[in-house]
Give the backbone structure.
Amino acid sequence: MKGTHLTYWGNIAEGYTTLLAGMKLSWKHLWKVWIGKKYSKNIQSDNYFDNQEGAITVQYPNEIIPVPDHGRYRLDNVMEDCIVCDKCVKICPVNCIEIDPIRSASEIRKTSDGSSVRLYAAKFDIDMAKCCYCGLCTTVCPTECLTMTKTYDYSEYSVDKLLYHYSDLSPKEATEKQEEFDLIQAVKKAKREQEATERATAKPTIKPAGEIKPKILIKKPSTNANTNVKTVAKPKIKILGVKKPNTIIKPKIPTQKKESNDTNTVKPVIKPKIVIPTKKTATLKPKIAPKPKKDE
């Protein structure tokens, strides 16, 4: 016996062995039912839930198997908490959700978590015939208004009945809300255009020029950073009774330099101005003090 599809007698032998293995398991459960009297009773009996072993079957729809809390079944939406953000439509891979939002000029209501609702849902449809039960729409919902319920048996005779409508506005109310918003936007647009024309036609106002104050520049005394020598102002000598000559001759007078070790601290000697008049009425000669003789 080498296995299936290898030899003729091997296929027959393998078929009998698998048949006996399945019958062994079935006879085991039947033995518990016949000998131990462990079988399903009527759900209306008082001791129905006492039998936990044997041939137990579920009497649907009177009895339903419990489903997990996070199961992926039929979608449901609570419009009171929906802010019509359109995130579920964008993330749906099969496009089973359709939303037609209508803007509102003011706040409509507050959700259970305090979020502000400023959009109407003229259309909020979920086509469960297209749904692939991925659960992505429930994860991106910011207010958790879109959830998957525990309802798994919602079969219908027509596919059109699997299209669920969750909008809280009738077609007439949706048209009125849209016209109201369009009217408000038209009034705002006309007001903006009027303000723009008024600014364009308005004459520019010329403001009177203020008094111009002259700026006085004060020069700071310059210092030589290399020699650290400060300049000394030259005094002017005025002689009464003598008119100002046309030309002024400044004779060069030798100055005495003091001997010092620091050459950077030498102060210049003031040079007197000598005025020579053009007329021969009065002449002034500068008095030059004789040089002191050094003691030998």
